[in-house]
Amino acid sequence: MSTNLAFRGVIPPVVTPDTKDHQLDVVSFERSVNRMINAGVDGLFFLGSSGEVVFATDERRDQIVREAVRIVAGRVPVLVGIIDTQTERVLEHGHRALEAGADALVATAPFYALGGIAEIEEHFRILHAELDAPLFAYDIPVCVHTKLPWKLLARLGAEGVLAGVKDSSGDDASFRYLVQENEKNGHPMALLTGHEIVVDGALLAGADGSVPGLANVEPEGYVRMWKAAQEGDWASVKREQDRLNEISHIFDVTSGVQGYGAGVGAFKCALHLMGVFDTPQMPRPVRPLSAENTEAIRTVLVENNLL
């Protein structure tokens, strides 16, 4: 069994709080990180899609990783996204993240100068060869416009190139095949689902954990779900997922917004209403949710006993 399974359980993709003048809100950041660790999460993923990675300058990325490592202080593993358009930029981010103390690195397929499967495979092989840390492939085709084939991921895992996969593809059939093939290969990779609405099904299929953005808002439920799955208590797993899905309606009660503003905007709005973030500020050019949408999210939180 691979030592990469140290990266298992609930590993939320941390939402990055901003001050009103678009600086890192260190106080809110520390409050949120400690809140999730105190809830029992098994790791934290910084500079993912929820963490504003593509909005951040190199200097801001460095600051986020430094502060993350300082706040976590070794209590849980720190995974850091090194997401960028092409291999050389990704390598730069990787070296800087490791210098700052990251425990594992998370990379997507290259994007913008789109290549084929051969280039994607070589991309991950180069990262593995030149970055001395466990490497996770981040499958998020909605953002990078390439679906990582499960056969490629399984092969790279079997060869020791990949330590794991963070699957946010929404393709549950592909993920299911990957879980089975990974098991046939001796389970070399930690397989984590980012499909937070159906974590219960992924765990039943054999996933090694989840990377649920909603755990920024309600971490305890995902922790309870993971523990119940470890005990084989699938009725409790489903019950927790059903409850969390009611909270997830913060995504669909809003109107007039879409994409990043609707998803991460809902997280930030909820965390602000709950007193975790000092502001719901979004990175430019994305605006915080309107007063009407804020009230709609408040209603969901009240109905689910989070306010």
UniProtKB/TrEMBL annotation:
Protein name as catalogued: Dihydrodipicolinate synthetase family
Residues bound to pyruvate: V211
The keyword Lyase is assigned to this record: yes
Family: Belongs to the DapA family.
GO BP, sorted A to Z: N-acetylneuraminate catabolic process
PANTHER family from the UniProt entry: N-ACETYLNEURAMINATE LYASE
GO molecular function, one term: 4-hydroxy-tetrahydrodipicolinate synthase activity
Active site: Y138 (proton donor/acceptor), K166 (schiff-base intermediate with substrate)
InterPro entries referenced in this protein's UniProt entry, alphabetically: Aldolase_TIM, DapA-like, Schiff_base-form_aldolases_AS
SUPFAM superfamilies (UniProt xref): Aldolase (SSF51569)
Enzyme Commission number, as recorded: 4.3.3.7
Gene Ontology CC annotations of this record: cytosol
Keywords for the protein's UniProt record, in alphabetical order: Lyase, Schiff base
Record Pfam families: DHDPS (PF00701)
